[in-house]
Amino acid sequence: MITLADLKIKIFADGADLARVEERCTEPWVQGFTTNPTLMRSAGVAEYASFAHELLELVPDKPISFEVIADEPREIERQARLIASWGENVYVKVPITTTRAHPTADVVRRLSESGIKVNVTAILTLEQVEDATAWLADGPGGYVSVFAGRIADSGRDPIPIMRDALERLAPHPHEELIWASPREVLNVVQADAIGCHVITVTDEILKRLPNLGRELDEYSLDTVRMFYRDAQAAGYTLDVETRGRLAG
Length: 248
What we know:
The chain has 248 residues and is an alpha/beta fold.
């Protein structure tokens, strides 16, 4: 059984809670960070740039991805260049298309060719993987983020798609495949097994990662103890009088 120490895949913490980020910075298995507008809104972030600079103070030397919040190509590019100026470790997330389904090809190419590290995000198909890989080909390196969890949510097995995606990235060693939106710890093991470069992991899953490789008998006993402990803490009782009232 694989353990946390056996993993070769890079684990990036995905979130927008600064206190959690500070905690995760101390964990050796967390090698980078990502966030997005949805996570930021959920965490109560009020002002984007201030939040980003606070986050960069906590994470000055590990890869970190921030996403543009525009939908028009010229503004996407302006924002991307601004975000990239925040630090050498910054990757700029650019969606694979605009909200009108127009590919962001020209913007990503220009950004990448000018030396900006781009994280092409919201990818779900192999055709999109091929596009993103080509757009990043002449740049300094970048990420191709495939939302494997959302592929699974559609009832499809993401593993064959992720394997094929790795093959498409193989001629471009400066590009890395991200397994995005995992749903459970098992996905980390699956991504590692196929040789995926990076997986983005929410705090809920990060908390369960130390369970990798646990003995199942021990885990079973801990589960029994948890149920008992919570019943006691809640003050639940089942006495004769209660049964009598139910019977009446």
